[in-house]
């Protein structure tokens, strides 16, 4: 599965694998896109199968477990990170500025009635509500979201790369 959701100042690619995310982030980097405007979101489903650790060391976020190279790499490449446990969903990992926006959405929960914190953060980026619901469902189905935001022309460039 690979699909995209577009808004004027943001685009979201729904990807099947961590490898696809790494490839797209590398393409964005090579194109000169500001990685400070890129986020990745996924469920941390493996937590029940093995010991998992999310920790900081030397000012950097680290992930210990099977997906350690992927998440540690994303947390190093993208600005900001979060590990959230969402009721009825489970643990969600975020690399990039979306982590902070999710926390801000939690602080303003009443403003985004009916949406999860992830949904509220995506909606706040300008993603239409129906597309937000599809993105949340995709994360629940173990898909990964790759989000790029910025000025309209930047997002158009990112959209072409993510397609």
Structural class: alpha+beta
Give the fraction of residues assigned to helices.
25-40%
Q: Main beta sheet: strand number and arrangement?
A: 6 strands, antiparallel
* Shape label: globular
Q: Work out the radius of gyration.
A: 15 Å
| Poorly predicted segments | none
**Cα-to-Cα separation, first versus last residue:** 12 Å
Task: Describe, in short, the structure shown.
The protein is α+β, with helices and mostly antiparallel strands and 163 residues long. The chain has helices at 18-31, 68-77, 98-107, 117-124, 129-140, 152-162, and strands spanning 3-7, 10-15, 38-43, 53-57, 60-64, 81-86, 90-95, 144-149.
Topology summary:
Layout: E1 3-7, E2 10-15, H1 18-31, E3 38-43, E4 53-57, E5 60-64, H2 68-77, E6 81-86, E7 90-95, H3 98-107, H4 117-124, H5 129-140, E8 144-149, H6 152-162
Antiparallel strand pairs: 1-2, 2-8, 3-7, 3-8, 4-5, 6-7
Your description of this structure?
Strand 4 (53-57) and strand 5 form a beta hairpin. Helices cover 40% and strands 28% of the residues. Helix 3 crosses helix 4 and helix 4 packs across helix 5. The chain is α+β, with helices and mostly antiparallel strands and 163 residues long. The protein is globular, with a radius of gyration of 15 Å. The N and C termini lie close together (12 Å). The chain has helices at residues 18-31, 68-77, 98-107, 117-124, 129-140, 152-162, and strands at 3-7, 10-15, 38-43, 53-57, 60-64, 81-86, 90-95, 144-149.
């Amino acid at each position: 599965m690979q699909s995209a959701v577009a808004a004027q100042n943001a685009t979201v690619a729904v990807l099947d694998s961590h490898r696809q995310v790494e490839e797209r982030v590398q393409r964005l980097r090579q194109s000169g896109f500001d990685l400070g405007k890129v986020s990745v979101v996924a469920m941390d489903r493996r937590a029940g199968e093995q010991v998992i650790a999310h920790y900081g060391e030397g000012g950097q976020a680290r992930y210990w477990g099977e997906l350690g190279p992927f998440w540690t790499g994303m947390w190093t490449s993208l600005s900001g990170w979060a590990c959230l446990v969402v009721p009825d969903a489970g643990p969600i990992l975020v690399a990039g500025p979306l982590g902070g926006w999710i926390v801000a959405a939690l602080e303003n929960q009443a403003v985004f009635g009916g949406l999860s914190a992830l949904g509220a953060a995506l909606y706040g980026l300008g993603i239409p509500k129906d597309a937000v619901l599809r993105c949340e469902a995709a994360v629940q189905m173990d898909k990964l979201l790759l989000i790029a935001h910025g000025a309209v022309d930047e997002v158009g460039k990112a959209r072409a790369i993510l397609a």
